[in-house]
Amino acid sequence: MKKNAIIVMMLVCAFSWGSVFPLAKVVLQDMSGLSLSIWRFAIAVSSLLVFMYITKKRIVSLSLTQYLALAVIGSIGIGGLNFALFSGLEHTSATNGALIMALSPIVTALLAAIVDQTSLRKLQLCQLGIALSGVLLVITKGDLNSLINLTINRGDVTILIGMLAWSCYTVCASKVSHWLAPLEFSLITMAMGLTTLLIISLFRAEVTPWESFITLPNFSLASLIYIGVFGTVVGYLCWNSGVKAFGSAKASLYFNLVPVFAALVSALMGQAVSAIQLMGMCVVLTGLMMPTLLRFINTKYAAVTASKIKS
User: Fold this and answer.
1) Tens digits of residue pLDDT in 241-284
2) Residue 135: phi, psi to the nearest 5?
3) What pLDDT is attached to residue 277?
4) Residue 273 to residue 97: CA distance in whole angstroms
5) pLDDT score of 167
6) Do 107 and 167 touch, CB atoms closer than 8 A?
7) CA–CA gap between residue 185 and residue 178 (Å, rounded)
8) Contacts of 12 (CB under 8 A, 6+ apart)
9) Using an 8 Å Cβ cutoff, are 185 and 177 in contact?
């Protein structure tokens, strides 16, 4: 697949995940976070199974060890992240949660460097730093006091664990993605993540996924279906394709666009977006486009230098 096509897929992924946040806030008024996670992946797994049945696709046969590895990756990266994220948000603010998840690209890049026994390039570090600063502007709306007065509680620690689980998922996915096509890889890991969430729900008497589902208002139901299909199936397929093509460190840079698109979708839903947040979005895009910008500048500089030499 061509590089430009993968970039478009990563942008679609970031938009799909970013759009989930404002819609999830609507659904969370009518069901618990764990119930939302269960239905999100139940819809996603069902959609993928129907698609594979219609297109007559089959999962490639793997060894028992490979299936167990995928089971662990899905349970930790999908089940672990979603359970930790929504459980953590019950005890901390959305701002704290977003700030912690914003560390994911850096942690992913560091984990990838450790696993591959390589060091991060200066350009990568610059990209990560610029993109993170833009994300902080979007999330904090330029109010540094929200960072200075940040307090750590149980919810923050829980979300931190979820963020680490997601970073591990991304790094592991880059190592085993060659076993399967992105569609099959997404289906198996989602199914294992869903299984993990269902097992957890058995020990949470207050969680009633079915009762919550059948009483959902129409808009919340439509939002849940959107989250399951576009925000999960499309998002994860694009993400896993990007990780397979770019590697975990480079692909994780696009995760910085998630809060950017979340803010834009929130604005479309009537929430105000400040000038400082728009500035932060531009900073994030600058960080992502840095290699392209540097190549453009170098090309122009080389052309100007060559013309001067000829003259």
Assistant:
1) 999 998 888 888 888 888 888 888 888 888 777 788 788 878 88
2) -60, -40
3) 74
4) 19
5) 92
6) yes
7) 9
8) 234, 235, 238
9) yes
- Cβ-Cβ contacts under 8 Å for 271 (sequence gap 6 or more): 22
- The rounded distance, in Å, linking the Cα atoms of 298 and 62 is 47
159-173 pLDDT, tens digit each: 889 989 999 999 999
The structure tokens 């790094």 sit at 171
Name the nearest CA neighbour of 16 among 179, 250, 241: 241
CA angle 102, 125, 147 (to 5 degrees): 35
Report which of 12, 20, 13, 16 is spatially closest to residue 37, judged by C-alpha positions. Answer: 20
- C-alpha torsion sign, points 184, 254, 20, 196: positive
Measure Cα distances from 82 to 39, 76, 300 in Å. 12, 9, 46
Q: Tell me which amino acid residue 127 is.
A: Q
d(CA 222, CA 233): 16
Name the amino acid, one letter, at 49. L
Q: Is residue 1 over pLDDT 80?
A: no
Token reading at 302: 């080389």
Angstrom distance (rounded) from CA 10 to CA 273:
24
